[in-house]
UniProtKB/TrEMBL annotation:
The keyword Transcription regulation applies. Gene3D superfamilies: GntR ligand-binding domain-like, Winged helix-like DNA-binding domain superfamily/Winged helix DNA-binding domain. It comes from Leifsonella bigeumensis. Residues 9-76 form the HTH gntR-type domain. Keywords: DNA-binding, Transcription, Transcription regulation. SUPFAM superfamilies: GntR ligand-binding domain-like (SSF48008), Winged helix' DNA-binding domain (SSF46785). The keyword Transcription applies. This is FCD domain-containing protein. It comes from the Bacteria.
Length: 231
């Protein structure tokens, strides 16, 4: 705790969090080089926390390290990679949801409910800031469950997987209808946790991941058909 009574993240953690959002939202597009000295000036910090944050981000798959070019923002996942990603999440997330339900607390439920409220407020119409916020809230929902599982290895494994789909959704401009479907499934997971239905929580999470996989494939097809898409 600082002298003013506040809690502040270490510099490397703050750099990591900021870069994570920038990468997920496409502010730093695929192929952009991440030069340590330029990021150091941009964030007004020494190169050390920049190096630490980039090393951590490499494990998320958001960035890649090349021997000649250094760190580069990774391309978006393709259809086969998304299928593999969702299969991995299907193995992991029902287990972590079950564990989180067993450890549920009032504070945890309140934080989950806040993410659902953000998703419920997603507006219809052209892709915009509210939809980006929706997908970030979706990621937060799953991250909260990972943390509440009480197993740091599960939480770390999830963090290496979870943001990839959100990055694809946000940069690929996944639609409002998909967001609303995901929100409804979050509501069912929440209801199961709130009622103490441990098995029901795991089942609801499994159903959610299977459905999300189908929606992701819809997004892949739509992106491939979009004007300017590679042939």
């Amino acid at each position: 705790m600082n002298e003013d009574g506040s809690h502040r993240l270490p510099i490397a953690d703050r750099v990591y969090d900021t870069l994570s959002v920038q990468l997920m939202t496409g502010e730093r597009p695929p192929g952009e080089r991440l030069k340590i000295h330029m990021l150091s000036r941009e964030f007004d910090v020494s190169p050390t926390p920049i190096r630490e944050a980039l090393a951590r981000l490499e494990h998320t798959g958001f960035i890649e390290r090349h021997s000649q070019r250094g760190y580069v923002v990774a391309r978006l996942l393709g259809a086969e990679e998304i299928a593999q990603l969702m299969d991995a999440r299907l193995l992991l997330e029902p287990t972590m949801a079950r564990a989180a339900a067993e450890r549920a607390s009032a504070g945890f439920l309140s934080r989950l409910a806040d993410t659902i409220t953000v998703m419920q407020d997603t507006k219809a119409g052209p892709y915009g800031e509210t939809l980006r916020e929706c997908w970030l809230a979706d990621e937060q929902f799953h991250g909260l469950i990972a943390d509440q599982s009480g197993n740091p290895f599960i939480a770390k494994a999830y963090r290496s997987l979870g943001g990839q789909l959100q990055r694809f959704r946000i940069i690929g401009k996944s639609g409002v209808s998909h967001a609303r479907s995901a929100c409804g499934e979050h509501e069912m997971i929440f209801a199961a946790i709130e009622s103490g239905d441990i098995d029901g929580t795991a089942t609801a999470m499994s159903r959610h991941i299977v459905n999300a996989k189908g929606r992701a494939f819809d997004d892949v097809v739509r992106a491939a058909r979009a004007p300017g898409a590679d042939n």
